[in-house]
Specification:
This is Cytochrome oxidase subunit I. InterPro entries: Cyt_c_oxase-like_su1_dom (IPR023616), Cyt_c_oxase-like_su1_sf (IPR036927), Cyt_C_Oxase_1 (IPR000883). By secondary structure, the chain is mainly alpha-helical. It is about 70% helix and about 0% strand. It is built from 18 helices and no strands.
Length: about 600
């Protein structure tokens, strides 16, 4: 209660119906968003510096090898007397020995002030098993390995297909007369794009990675492989049928992200129920007394999403303002309670296991989980500020949006403190950079969403292209980057093969640069569009001014799509047995379990 009172007092100046555009540039939401964008740029520059340092180190090594070769050639051309003189000097150097007293003495060592806490002759440094190539092969049951690979393979397929639709839509903003076919119209193709990447790519990737986490952290076998396959078939069937109906013009009306009609979404809901039962029974049969923090997040995400889908498709309140309120709840909870919560559970396992160290704080993880449940469930209405919905409901959504700073800061701190001491891994592997970008966008995207909920910034940005940028900042910058990090961390350990680092690097940089170009262009254009609307200018003016920003949107989207094609090849490389595997230790190395506090 005290937290809510403090939030209301802090946010009260931002809750007024302020629509004056004279000083829009210095409004808190706008200033906060600019600061967050600068943070993303700084992190990108830091990663580039680390990678450049690694390249410079390799160049220096090559130069040393070249110098050594030149010296060898020089020795060949020397006379016998000159060679004898050089060898005599070398013999003297080899015979020289230190006395042992150069930096010390024979005096007894006394620590009168108690400054020394531990003395060791075998210092243990944190291992980063992903520095260059994975040398760890995890003993995974073949049925589980097959199940995981099929889930991830289907996810990769839907990623390429769903973003192909998104790429085509981005091109239509630049060339509106690209086609005149009804089934390729924007109104049909746009929900195909969003629902495919939501329920196809992201959901299947999360569940596939989750099957490994659930069994690994419970130290037991999966409860039922049959249920796992049933879930795979039901989800893929729902996406196939859902897209076929959408392309045919059969949909659930204007409900964003719930365009699939209810019989099709029922298949997805049954798959979630089956998956939850499979996960729950596996955790219940665990051979450990504790339940690892990842499992709390994953099971909570499944429970919350089953409730969400049920409420979103109930026939009650599906008209008028009731539908508006339900839509805000469903649309935002789908992102926060399903994708975000499940993905954070995966990060709590894959990040520390990739660094071979425990998560920094179990308590911060619990704090983030319960505060996310408290605040996230009430923020959906901030998508309908200034609508006919009750003013108190809008204000509640804004206040709870501000409250989201608590779980976001707790989670970000936990992840960054876990990485602390392992920064050198950035220069030698792309697994940590994928994680790092996901963590940064988790903070930036979530915080920017809270800033955007304030009434003035909402008035300027909402229903413009700025909102499209924000959704990609979260679903792509956070969720997709975390999924890629988990896949690149897991697959080499269960298949024995890792994709070439330069191809993983190409995937990373094309996705990151493409997202940044896409995001910044739509943020800038969306801001100008909102100001144009507020100034009362003709609507066509806002369409015309968006043309150059839509071009950059298409350019950024193209880079992102190319990165997905590279990722698909990398995935195929890692699972294809006919491709020669990388050198891997034959003996199986047991991966240290995350610390169960």
């Amino acid at each position: 209660m005290r937290v809510l009172i403090i939030l209301v007092l802090v946010l009260m100046p931002l809750l007024s119906n302020a629509q004056n555009t004279e000083n829009w540039i210095i409004s808190p939401g706008v200033v906060g968003t600019f600061a967050l964008l600068i943070l993303v740029i700084v992190v990108g520059i830091i990663i580039m510096i680390f990678r450049a340092s690694n390249l410079l180190s390799k160049a220096t090594s090559n130069a040393a090898m070249k110098e050594k070769k030149e010296w060898s050639n020089h020795l060949i051309n020397l006379e016998e007397e000159e060679l004898d003189a050089i060898l005599e000097e070398r013999k003297k150097a080899f015979k020289y020995r230190l006395k042992g007293t150069e930096l010390g003495s024979s005096m007894q060592r006394i620590d009168e002030r108690g400054l020394i806490t531990r003395l060791t002759h075998k210092p243990s440094y944190p291992l980063v098993d992903e520095k260059k190539r994975s040398t760890v092969n995890l003993e995974t049951p073949e049925p589980l390995k097959k199940l995981i690979i099929f889930y991830l393979g289907a996810a990769v397929f839907w990623l390429v297909l769903g973003t192909l639709a998104g790429q085509y839509l981005g091109m239509k903003f630049v060339w509106p007369d690209l086609d005149h076919l009804s089934w390729l119209s924007f109104g049909r193709l746009r929900p195909v794009h969003t629902n495919t990447v939501f329920w196809g790519w992201t959901s299947l990737a999360m569940i596939g990675l989750g099957y490994f986490v659930i069994t690994r952290t419970s130290n037991t076998k999966l409860f039922s492989y049959k249920l796992g396959w049933w879930g795979w078939w039901l989800i893929n069937t729902s996406v196939i049928l859902g897209n076929a109906f959408l392309m045919s013009g059969i949909n659930n009306g204007g409900g964003e992200y719930r365009e699939y009609i209810w019989p099709i979404m029922l298949l997805f809901a049954i798959a979630l129920l089956i998956t939850f039962w499979n996960y729950y029974k596996t955790v219940a049969n665990r051979k450990l007394s504790e339940i690892y923090i990842s499992n709390w997040y994953i099971l909570a995400a499944l429970v919350w999403t089953l409730v969400l889908v049920t409420i979103g498709y109930l026939p009650y309140y599906q008209s008028g303002l009731g539908e508006t309120a339900i839509q805000g709840y469903y649309m935002h909870q789908g992102v926060g309670m399903w994708f975000m919560t499940f993905t954070l559970g995966l990060v709590y396992y894959y990040l520390p296991s990739s660094l071979n160290k425990p998560i920094y704080s179990y308590s911060l993880g619990v704090l983030a989980l319960w505060t996310q449940m408290l605040f996230y469930t009430m923020i959906g209405t901030h998508h309908f500020v200034f609508s006919p919905l009750p003013w108190w409901l809008q204000t509640t959504a804004i206040v709870f949006s501000g409250g989201m700073f608590i779980p976001v800061i707790a989670g970000t701190t936990n992840f960054m403190m876990t990485i602390r001491g392992s920064w050198k891994a950035i220069s030698s592997s792309y697994v940590l950079p994928f994680f790092l970008i996901g963590i940064i966008f988790y903070f930036v995207g979530s915080a920017q969403g809270s800033f955007q909920a304030f009434r003035f910034t909402n008035y300027v940005w909402h229903f413009t292209d700025f909102n499209v940028a924000h959704s990609h900042m979260t679903m792509y910058g956070i969720i997709a980057f975390f999924m890629w990090a988990g896949i690149y961390a897991l697959l080499p350990k269960i298949t024995g093969k890792e994709a070439p680092q330069w191809l993983i690097g190409a995937h990373f940089w094309l996705a990151f640069i493409g997202l940044f170009a896409y995001m910044v262009s739509l943020m800038a254009g969306g801001t100008l569009k909102g100001l144009s609307w507020m100034a009362g200018e003709p609507f066509i003016n806002s369409v015309i001014l968006m043309q150059p920003y839509w071009l950059w949107r298409a350019i950024g989207g193209t880079l992102m799509f190319i990165s997905h094609l590279i990722f698909a090849y990398n995935f195929f490389y890692m699972i294809n047995k006919r491709i020669r595997p990388l050198a891997i230790k034959k003996n199986l190395i047991t991966e240290p379990q995350p610390e169960l506090v």
